[in-house]
Amino acid sequence: MMRRGFSMLMAIAVIVIMMGVSAMVFSLSNQMVASTTTQYHKEQAILLAKSYTEYTLMAVTANLGTVGGGVCLDGVTGDVTRLQLGPGAMGTVEGGMGYRITTQVSYIGNGSPSTRLLCNRVLNVGPIVSNISPSIIIDVYVRYRDTSMHVNGDSPWMTYHRRTLQKI
């Protein structure tokens, strides 16, 4: 009888130990998934910031070449959805299923006074030399919801910022 009781206690002990190990593995797996998701969102924001920098630069150069000396572009905004994977991928940016991108353009350098009046943000950097081409500063802000802290559809916004100085 003593051997049967000992065998049963050993079986129960092994089951409890295995249950603890499986709970630990499940917890670590959950942390890894959350970490990977956060890293995916940040990498996607970095790629979108690079893309919108190039897109804003293209829009600025296209607007400056128009008839009448051109118009200064203040920035570009947009919402990017459908980059999320999973069953809820059709949601809105406000609901945590996408990215909101805003770019701001500041002009630096030479230009005629009539052109400067059209620009909202012009940074004067000393005397203007006629052979120096103008430059722009492009600030890109990519905002997205942190899905790891999703509480009742009101998770905090995460922001990735990128600043680029570019001659035009």
Q: What descriptive keywords fit this protein?
A:
single chain; 168 residues; alpha+beta; five-stranded mixed beta sheet; 2 helices; 24% strand
Structure overview:
With 168 residues, the chain is of the alpha+beta class. The chain has one domain (2-167). The protein contains two helices and five strands; from the N terminus they run αββαβββ. The protein has helices at 2-64, 113-118; strands at residues 77-81, 98-108, 122-123, 135-145, 157-167. Strands 1, 2, 3, 4 and 5 form a five-stranded mixed sheet that branches. α2 links the parallel β2 and β3. The longest helix has 63 residues, at 2-64. The radius of gyration is 27 Å and the shape is rod-shaped. The termini are far apart. Mean pLDDT is 78; it is low at 112-118.
Write a brief structural summary.
The protein has 2 helices and 5 strands, in the order αββαβββ.
Helix and strand arrangement:
Layout lengths: L1 H63 L12 E5 L16 E11 L4 H6 L3 E2 L11 E11 L11 E11 L1
Parallel strand pairs: 2-3
Antiparallel strand pairs: 1-2, 2-4, 4-5
Number of strands: 5
Bin the strand percentage: 15-25%
What do the pLDDT scores average to? 78
Low-confidence stretches: 112-118
How many domain units?
1
Helix content: 40-55%
- Given helix and strand content, the structural type is alpha+beta
Global geometry: rod-shaped
Distance between the termini: 91 Å
Radius of gyration: 27 Å
Query: What is the makeup of the main sheet?
Result: 5 strands, mixed
Order of helices and strands: HEEHEEE
Give me the number of helical elements: 2
